[in-house]
Amino acid sequence: MMSATARLQAAKQIRLFIMDVDGVLTDGRIFIRDNGEEIKAFHTLDGHGLKMLHRHGIQTAIITGRDAPSVGIRVQQLGIKHYFKGISDKRSCYQQLLEQLQLSEQQCAYIGDDVVDLPVMKHCGLAVAVPNAHALVLRHADYVTEAAGGAGAVREVCDLLLDAQGFMAAEMAGYLA
């Protein structure tokens, strides 16, 4: 786990925030209707946080092992430009994305909850886990959110990045006027 000072220093450099879906943007539960349709719940706090990041040039991406239509819809709603679904090798996908965007590992943050996220978490500038993550993931995280996956954990990271990079006050000024 990073110290608060080291975490802020790492957060200042982040230009790309990458997320897993199940257990991070959702609470990890998957509801399946009788017709096979999956239902997922997303938190609005996370969505607004991601939109604020976009306003300040911080890119966002999703790398997920599953392929659920509801996630594609949410990606479009939020304007997430980099969406990779059905990915079994997250690290390879991550490395290709870094090359495409010409970013270093230190410029990336990743939030995950399960061991499939570790290959990226161990190689990014700021590795984040949700508190209900697998124990091994928690041990390798630089930061563990207070909010659970699907309950504002992503927003917590968005706020951390915005604050560390000096954008939070401007973002909040319009709401507090």
Give the strand tally.
8
- Note the gap between the termini: 37 Å
Radius of gyration: 15 Å
Shape: globular
Largest sheet: 6 strands, parallel
Strand order of the largest sheet: 5-4-1-6-7-8
Which ranges are low-confidence, i.e. pLDDT below 50, for 5 or more consecutive residues?
Answer: none
Residues in helices, as a percent range: 40-55%
Name the structural class.
Answer: alpha/beta
What share of residues are in beta strands? 15-25%
In N-to-C order, the SSE pattern is: HEEEHEHEHEHEHEHH
Average pLDDT reading? 95
| SS element count, helices | 8
Summarize the structure.
The chain has eight helices and eight strands. The protein has 177 residues and is an alpha/beta fold.
What report would you give on this structure?
The protein is an alpha/beta fold. The chain is 42% helix and 15% strand. It contains eight helices and eight strands. It has helices at 4-12, 44-55, 69-78, 90-101, 118-121, 135-140, 153-164, 168-176, and strands spanning 16-19, 31-32, 38-39, 59-63, 82-84, 108-112, 126-129, 143-144. A six-stranded parallel β-sheet has the order 5-4-1-6-7-8, with helices on both faces. A two-stranded antiparallel sheet has the order 2-3. Helix 2 packs parallel to helix 7 (153-164). It is globular and about 50 Å long. The termini are far apart. The model has no long low-confidence stretch (mean pLDDT 95).
